[in-house]
Specification:
This protein is mainly β and 179 residues long. The chain has one helix and eight strands; from the N terminus they run αββββββββ.
């Protein structure tokens, strides 16, 4: 019985030591940022928008990857889109959730991500009969690839490209005076 007690004590000490070393090897990091984002495919031309985000990641020592979660908000405007019977201005407001794996080591990482966007698209007509503003809901899951370069402690460059599948397909158009 005494030997068995020593074995249990030894196993418990090893488990506590392993848990302690695992805790020391796991690192959490939180960051916030602002930036500019160019978006296409939603509007006839590229739209540059303002982006803010908060990100949380978990890194484990000895592993080449980290799990990250990001929540971002985007406001992108089109400028005036000229048309034959009227003009339009479009505004896209969006919240995006990203779940990513980050590979690499500072100062350069690559991240494949699964995303989901929720937001709305506003189109405001002008120079047309019965010009109004229309709002359409925007829902879309997507996949992106992001490269991250930490250029300076306070400057991070992140080119990102991806595809998305809109679950809602807003159609905004001008109707002529006969309709």
């Amino acid at each position: 019985p005494e030997r068995r007690d020593r074995l249990f004590e030894s196993a418990a000490e090893e488990l506590a030591s392993e848990r302690s070393s695992n805790t020391e090897r796991t690192r959490w990091r939180f960051q916030v940022g602002v930036g500019l984002q160019a978006a296409s495919a939603l509007m006839p031309d590229w739209a540059v928008g303002q982006l803010i985000y908060a990100e949380l990641d978990r890194t484990r020592a000895g592993l080449p990857s980290a799990a990250t979660a990001r929540l971002s908000a985007l406001r992108a405007a089109s400028g005036t889109i000229r048309g034959a019977i009227g003009d339009a201005e479009m505004l896209w407001l969006s919240l995006r959730g990203d779940a990513c794996l980050r590979f690499g080591h500072a100062p350069l990482w690559a991240s494949p991500c699964a995303t989901f966007d929720v937001g709305w698209l506003d189109a405001t007509g002008s120079r047309a009969a019965n010009a109004t503003t229309k709002r359409a809901v925007w829902l879309s899951p997507g996949l992106t690839a992001r490269a991250t370069l930490v250029a300076l402690k306070f400057l991070v460059l992140e080119p990102e490209a991806g595809v998305f599948v809109p679950l809602s397909r807003p159609r905004l158009f001008f109707a002529g005076p006969e309709s």
